[in-house]
Amino acid sequence: MKELLRSNDAVRLSWAEALLTAAGIEIVIADRHTSIVEGSIGAIQRRILVADEDLARARALLAEAEGSM
To answer: Rounded mean pLDDT of the chain?
Structure first.
């Protein structure tokens, strides 16, 4: 698994999760529970991980979607 995105922005993470899942890319959100436990100070960011073979496609999807915003 490779890290695709790291953020404290719940909306951005949810958007990226929906985009990638709709494209058939399986993801893992790391540090979700740790981030919640530490409170809202933002010290621990959540990370979206994808399989090594999906990384290039996932990056391209995010870049294309962000460019069209």
So the answer is: 89
